[in-house]
Write a structure and sequence with these properties.
630 residues, alpha+beta, DNA Primase, Chain A, DNA primase DNAg catalytic core, N-terminal domain, Dna Topoisomerase Vi A Subunit, Chain: A, domain 2, five-stranded mixed β-sheet, four-stranded antiparallel β-sheet, 26 helices, globular
Length: 630
């Protein structure tokens, strides 16, 4: 539906961002200044102990200096409640006492229909909970007791029982006035192919309610009491209310627990989730009867940056883990990853908790390995690489997997990790001096001391140059704050080494330079900063824009040079001096190419100033400072 002009502005003026956010965080009272509408807290979007999440009540915006989450009250509700934009508007409008405008009739009909389905599922939950407590539920209660699930835990998880009757639920709910069509549409009943009366979908099963992130009952899951049943677990079908690939079991409670610092664990099913949560691992979720989907993976990353996938140690569990690896590779982002905790063979999380308790499972979590390790194991375990062809084959499959990673920075680090692991696997063999009949073996060539010294010198020079360039950039934006929005992403991603530079970077992003006046005064007093064109010519914003764009381009190239030099230093063992010299030449050439165009003086831009201006304008139009994907 469309909203009338001015409605959102009116909504934002009626609500306080700090009140909305305050429901999800604990404010740092020492760092916050309530009178100025300046609030600080640990970020609700990633696990941390320090208060790096900032709310500016006057401007109505929040920003996290750790994970860079940002937005207004609507964005916050969308992200923390996992709702659509219009649902977020409705939530805040109710809170503000602001009537929603008239809805589109078709959209209103769809929303009302979904609300009816949720009510039907809720009635089914109540019915099955009563059945568990009745005489028909004796066997089910004994089963749950045998799984060490107390009566209190059964109440917390709203567990029920569906007796083995064809129309028990159908008759109970139609007696309450619920139509047969709604029972079928909600998924709790099914209609036979011959068009006869609907029948109960769940019979002879323990019932687990499935709720969305907001706590609405959206479907049911059932575990068969009969060990010979065709399906051990059965979920409700896809409906207008329930999409199993877009939901997680225990989503809402797990998100709340993760927000309080608990580790997000992904288990295989209902009983594993319940057993882990009851044992204290309260931020546990499970997919709903299917392999983890892309949407579920994104939901997990909205809860925590690095969920731990806990899988059975059997062959099926390992295959499931590897499917998750293949699914996750193209979706990886900086700071968003997965770890895998593989349980002992033959045990699932529920078994492990019952036999070894919470400490036993915690030990498994402590040994969780990153996704790169699982990828390496898949391609190397049980294989022999005793020939160049086999080693080339390993390079090929690893390269194909890494090529699927969209983020270039993560792709680079995966390449380096695989290089490190291959060095461990093949390094000893490759360092051996080959045997040549009749020829005395010679010691491998090593870099000379002068080469080592030149490497160290270059590293030190580059580090100093990066700090100088960072200082110029920070001063330029402090002098021309109107340019910050255009370069915001680049400012966020700057690698800042000095603490005072970090404070300035955070102040620029928060548009709060008043909090770092001393640091800014010290920065602007530096000779190389004072003579930089953006600072020396505060009235010329076009010149400043070109200079800052060029500085970011140089900074990116300089970081590449530094990485190459450090890699060369790491590879010095066993590398001939000629090879190292070549790498240094390449690094030097890259540095020189990056620095050929200079703007050291606003009045001396070379003989062809117009050509240089066109070149810099191309850099700006192409946003060269923005990190590209792919």
């Amino acid at each position: 539906m469309s909203l009338p002009n001015g409605f959102l502005d009116e909504l934002r003026t009626r609500i306080s961002l700090s009140q909305v956010v305050g429901r999800k965080v604990t404010w740092d009272v020492r760092k916050s200044n309530q009178g100025k509408g300046d609030w600080w807290a640990p970020c609700p979007f990633h696990q941390e102990k320090s208060a790096s999440f900032h709310v500016d009540d006057r401007k109505g915006f929040y920003y996290c200096f750790g994970c860079h989450a940002k937005g207004d009250a609507l964005t916050f509700v969308k992200e923390t409640e996992n709702v659509s934009f219009m649902e977020a508007v409705e939530i805040l409008a109710r809170e503000a006492g602001l009537p929603m405008p008239a809805r589109d009739p078709r959209a209103a009909e769809k929303t009302d229909h979904r609300a009816q389905l949720a009510q039907v599922v809720e009635e089914a939950v109540k019915h099955y909970r009563l059945m568990l407590k009745s005489g028909q539920g004796v066997a089910a209660r004994d089963y749950l007791s045998g799984r060490r699930l107390s009566v209190e835990a059964q109440e917390r998880w709203e567990i029920g029982f569906a007796p083995d009757h064809r129309q028990g639920l159908f008759q109970a709910l139609t007696a309450k006035g619920i139509s047969a069509d709604l029972l079928v549409a909600s998924g709790v009943c099914a209609r036979p192919d011959d068009g006869g009366a609907p029948y109960d979908r769940f019979r002879g099963r323990i019932i687990f309610p499935i709720r969305d992130a907001r706590g609405r009952a959206i479907s049911l899951g059932g575990r068969a009491m009969d060990p010979n049943a065709r399906a051990k677990y059965l979920n409700g079908p896809e409906t207008d209310l329930f999409d199993k690939g877009r939901n997680l079991y225990n989503h809402g409670p797990a998100r709340e627990a993760a927000g309080k610092g608990r580790l997000l664990i992904v288990a295989e099913g209902y009983m594993d989730t319940i057993a882990l949560s009851e044992a204290g691992f309260t931020a546990t979720v499970a997919p709903l009867g299917t392999a983890i989907t892309e949407d579920q993976l994104r939901l997990m990353w909205r809860i925590a940056d690095e969920p731990v996938i806990a899988l059975d140690g059997d062959a099926a569990g390992i295959r499931a883990a590897l499917r998750v690896v293949d699914l996750a590779l193209p979706l990886l982002e900086a700071g968003k990853g997965l770890r895998f905790a593989v349980l002992p063979s033959g045990l699932d999380p529920d078994d492990l908790i019952r036999t070894q308790g919470a400490p036993g499972f915690q030990k498994v979590l402590d040994g969780a390995e990153p996704m790169a390790g699982l990828l390496w194991r898949r391609e190397t375990e049980g294989k022999v690489f005793d020939s160049p062809e086999r080693r080339a084959g390993l390079d090929k499959v690893l390269g194909a997997a890494i090529a699927r990673i969209a983020d270039p920075s993560i792709r680079h680090h995966y390449t380096e990790e695989m290089k490190r692991l291959k060095w461990q696997l093949f390094g000893a063999r490759s360092r051996q001096t080959p045997f040549v009949p009749g020829k005395r073996p010679q010691a491998p060539a090593v870099p000379t001391s002068s080469t080592r010294q030149s490497l160290l010198a270059m590293v030190e020079d580059e580090a100093m140059a990066l700090d100088l360039r960072t200082a110029v950039l920070l001063a330029g934006f402090a002098t021309h704050p109107s340019l910050i929005p255009a370069f915001e992403t680049a400012i966020e991603r700057m690698v800042v080494r000095q603490p005072e530079h970090r404070r300035l970077q955070e102040a620029l992003l928060a548009h709060d330079l008043g909090s770092v006046e001393a640091d800014l005064e010290t920065l602007l007093a530096l000779p190389h900063v004072r003579i930089s064109p953006p600072v020396r010519n505060p009235e010329d914003i076009d010149l400043a824009r070109m200079c800052l764009a060029e500085e970011f381009a140089k900074l990116d190239a300089a970081h590449g040079v530094e990485i190459e030099i450090r890699e060369a230093m790491e590879d010095m063992e066993g590398l001939a001096d000629e090879g190292l010299t070549w790498r240094l030449q390449q690094a030097a050439e890259a540095r020189n190419n990056a620095g050929r165009t200079r703007l050291d003086d606003a009045g001396d831009l070379g003989e062809d100033r117009s050509a240089l201006s066109r070149h810099l304008q191309d850099l700006i139009d192409g946003q060269i400072w923005v990190k590209k994907k792919g």
